[in-house]
Amino acid sequence: MGSVQIVTTILAAAITAVAVWLAVRAVMKMTAVIRLGQPAPERFADKGARTKKMLVETAGHTRMLKWSVVGAAHWFVMVGFIVLSLLVLEAYFEVVTPGGGLPIIRHWTVFGLATEWIGILGLAGILVLMTIRLRSRPNRPGNRSRFTGSTMWQGYFVEWVVLLVLIFGFVIRGFKVATDHFEYPVWATPLSHAVGAALPAWTAGVSVAALIKIAISMTWLIVISLNVTMGVAWHRFLAFPNIFFKRDPEKSAGSGLGPLRPMTSEGKPLDFEEADPEKDQFGVAQVEQFTWKGLLDFSTCTECGRCQSQCPAWNTGKPLSPKLLVLSLRDHAYAKAPYLLAGGGKDLTGEEKATQEQLAGVDVLALAEADRPLIGTAEEGGVIDPDVLWSCTTCGACVEQCPVDIEHVDHIVDMRRYQVLIESSFPSEAGVMLRNLENKGNPWGAPQNTREDWTKGLDFEVPRVGEVDDFEYLFWVGCAGAFEDRAKKTTRAVATLLNEAGVKFAILGEGETCSGDPARRIGNEFVFQMLAQQNVETLNEAFEGREKSKRKIVATCPHCFNTLGNEYGQLGGEFEVVHHTQLLAHLVATGKLTPVQPVDGGLTYHDPCYLGRHNRVFTPPREVLGSALGGAEITEMPRNSERSFCCGAGGARMWMEEKIGKRINVDRVEEAMSTGAKTIAVGCPFCSTMLNDGVNGKGAGEQVEVVDVASVLLRSVKPDTPAGEKEAEPVAG
Are 302 and 404 contacting, i.e. CB atoms less than 8 angstroms apart? Predict the structure, then answer.
């Protein structure tokens, strides 16, 4: 060992010791903070499925590759980080001696070949990512960047570290080639040999370059250890457990889509018949009241901004960015952590749990952070502004896009639950909707005895459950389908088509009440459970004696479809629920419905969030529309299928005024109209209302029509008998 190697060895050992010590300290701090969260025992079930899903999502980059160029570049960088960590380890042998290398595998040509090409492709990948970040930088004139609000220096720092580590990997190999210490042939390691041809035969160069590579790597580790909220770096480690502990490991898309998590206290579902607000947790009022998985979510955020780029609120000038919301909660959690770890915190009555002695040594900044309300205006020092909380439509675009499976919607609704149930703090106009749900069983406040009025004027009898036992499908009409004039046209169209196809169906009529979706999404879990339990009891009675496969429900509203199919199981209601477009597609495919007159004028289709993104029903509506178009193609909007843009009505926003920024429905209507199609087909009564309002607001009601998929099909199947489109006719007295 020469003098150069002695110096490089000592320096490498010193910086590594510091980096490892700081990293251990950082991991212990991060673990302690995450453990502050509430229990979530269900996250440990199905370990086999969770392991499989984690490996598929990480190794296969299934979610990252939804953005193909970025996903491919990131895959090469990720593989480079994992595999080429071996070369960082090898550098510790190379600082000691120029001919040093990893034991056993250092002579394997296949190892040299693999690491060479992983390094080359990693270089290409990181250069692509750096270019994308620079082209998308927030301060670029006229650019609405997904990186707005991200900590840009951290992104640049991480990318430059990756680039320099890869470069010095080839420099080390180049010096080995130049000094005849390299084990691999030219055909396996062409770039290394090319670099070696350009470098001098400096024997000490191997050890010096190895020291620089170690120093860069350890500087990275030191910096991230001193910044535990540096998600752009820590996600390299935290993404694996975050994906492993996702809510539903069986889902191919975001596991936070579809049903909401039930309200829990101490890890157990809340029973409202016995719950006590002074003993049981109602929603989330303090950051430590999120589950530990929630705190892991916040810690894992990469600040990539995919969620932000797809969010309808953010894209129409609202203050909500799913990314910034998560970052605010993350920063708040870690800033408050010293106070919490010292034993501080408020009990459910608002009393301080810690003694003065316990808090004596806590930093004043942590104490100040502890006094901030979780939800509050800037003047109140709130972590999350109320306008941010109530801008969410729960469309799920953020969850769909997140590459590390953060469950934004669950966290937003948990905060809403506390605001509604304990603070009674929510947009005032939504109060009318909640009172109507409690008193009338529907958000419009219509009399229950008018639920069957949509059947008037039909030229066939609509059977009721109880009057007939022999029915294949229970037709869940929904509140909109029963009371809202435009939605009633869809209800009549579906009933007409089912009758035409010979499908035996029945309705509950006045026995049906609201599914509870608006109450649950706004945060009123109590009203949701009241309505849901009533409906589950009614439905179980209607299907009494039938096995689950024969307890079939068809619904025209995606919100009812999602609630009945995905959430009623939490309350003992197990049913096979299909959307009307799924059933109609089946009837057309089996020849029970035959379109005879193509719809002309061009048609585009708007994917409802709760049908498409939340429940992955993309194809059936398009199959129905395709048959009605007589072979002509649907004119797709730029944002369609899983990237469809929201209509603005979800998350109970149907009953709240849109006072900030551009109206979401207008943005979507402009996109639909840009296709040139004369018909905008929808599969949701909320979407129908919002897009109709948008079209009328644009003064285009005479040029563009918004109509349900069922009505489009009915016009094609029975062009001369538009029974489904007729308004209810007055009944002679």
Answer: yes
Q: Which helix (H) or strand (E) holds 682?
A: strand 679-682
CB 457 within 8 A of CB 727: yes
Residue pointed to by tokens 């979780």: 374
Instruction: Write out the two tokens for 298.
Output: 């916040």
Nearest to 234 by CA among 307, 150, 296, 299: 299
The 3-class secondary structure across 153-175, one letter per residue, is HHHHHHHHHHHHHHHHHHHHHHH
Mean pLDDT, residues 27-48 taken together? 95
Asked whether 531 and 498 are in contact (CB, 8 A), the reply is no
Query: How far is residue 85 from each of residues 162, 429, 472, measured CA to CA in Å?
Result: 11, 57, 60
**Alpha carbon separation from 481 to 59, 471, 636 (Å, rounded):** 45, 20, 26
What is this structure's pTM? 0.93
The 3-state DSSP class for residue 259 equals: coil
pLDDT at 142: 65
pLDDT score, position 144? 77
What Cα–Cα distance (Å) separates residue 363 from each residue in 231, 331, 342, 406? Answer: 24, 16, 11, 30
Per DSSP, 331 falls in state H
CA gap 384, 405 in Å, rounded: 21
Name, in order, each residue with C-beta under 8 angstroms of 61's C-beta and a sequence gap of 6 or more: 71, 74, 75, 78
How far apart CA 523 and CA 283 sit, in angstroms, is 8
Question: Rg of the Cα trace of the chain?
Answer: 30
What pLDDT, in 10s, does the model give residues 465-511?
988 888 999 999 999 999 999 999 999 999 999 999 999 999 999 99
Residue 679: φ, ψ to 5° = -125, 130
Written as six digits, the tokens of 277 are 């607000």
Query: What percentage of the chain carries pLDDT values higher than 90?
Result: 82
